[in-house]
Design goal:
Length: 256
């Protein structure tokens, strides 16, 4: 077992100066010291680069044109040196100063075949909580039939897996949904009993102009990635894939 688990915080930015400082500070304040912040910027002109430069001691960033957020994430992952990666938007933030320490406590106990480990995600606007995602593995898995069940900004993914399975750059908004719909299984997914992060509902996928694009991408993903696995997802939805007792046993084995 490795002495220290290293966490890579992955961020894609473009003209994100408004809330970026809060996001960076939420990581820098962590009691757990073994982390890195990897930022891929798309050529910002609003002061984002000046903020990143002022955090140069803790942030590794590159600014260059990209083909969208998933291209930027792939580039950032290629530079990451951590064991697990966590993707934060430029306006998201970690919930408290002890989040990474709490998560690492559980990540350390996971079997090698666990690729995704997710916690609780709070959601809202301007830091004000309006919703919470606290789902069982069963719910996360089955919800791919209709929605993005996984709370992505509260999900740790093994970095080695990300390096060998990049995000599909054809998607502009729903690439994380496509990635999860293709790769998540009940037996490679773990639940962390930790409130990990806050997700701002003001990002690209929540804007009015992007809703049609999001719908088109979701429909494509449902057709190409979810439909071929429909029996697997439906079994989870109907409750035949795993009983509540098995869920408790899994959590006790991997998260206590």
């Amino acid at each position: 077992m490795k002495q220290h688990i290293r966490i890579s915080i992955i961020m894609a930015t473009y003209n994100a100066a408004a809330q970026l400082e809060r996001t960076l500070r939420s990581v820098e304040r962590q009691c757990y010291p073994h982390w890195e912040i990897i930022v891929q910027d798309g050529g910002s002109t609003d002061g984002t680069l000046e903020i990143l430069e002022s955090h140069r001691a803790s942030v590794s960033y590159v600014s260059e044109p990209d083909r969208g957020i998933y291209d930027a994430w792939n580039k950032a992952v290629a530079r990451a040196g951590g064991d697990w990666a966590l993707f934060l938007g430029a306006d998201d933030f970690l919930m408290n100063d002890n989040v990474l320490a709490q998560c690492v406590h559980f990540l350390r106990k996971l079997d090698d075949d666990i690729i995704f480990a997710y916690g609780v995600l709070l959601m809202g606007a301007n830091g004000n909580v309006s919703g919470i995602l606290n789902r069982s593995r069963h719910e996360v898995f089955s919800l791919f039939i209709s929605d993005m069940g996984l709370p992505f900004p509260a999900t740790f993914i093994r970095t080695d897996f990300l390096k060998s399975h990049p995000f599909d750059r054809i998607y502009k908004i729903a690439g994380d949904f496509a990635f999860c719909a293709e790769h998540i299984r009940l037996d490679n997914l773990a639940r962390l009993p930790v409130c990990v992060s806050f997700f701002e509902l003001t990002g690209i996928s929540s804007s009015e102009n992007s809703r049609k694009q999001l719908l088109r991408e979701r429909l494509r993903i449902l057709k190409t990635k979810v439909e071929p696995r429909i029996e697997e997802f439906t079994a989870a939805l109907m409750g035949t894939a795993e009983s509540s007792e098995q869920e408790h046993e899994f959590i006790n084995r991997n998260c206590n």
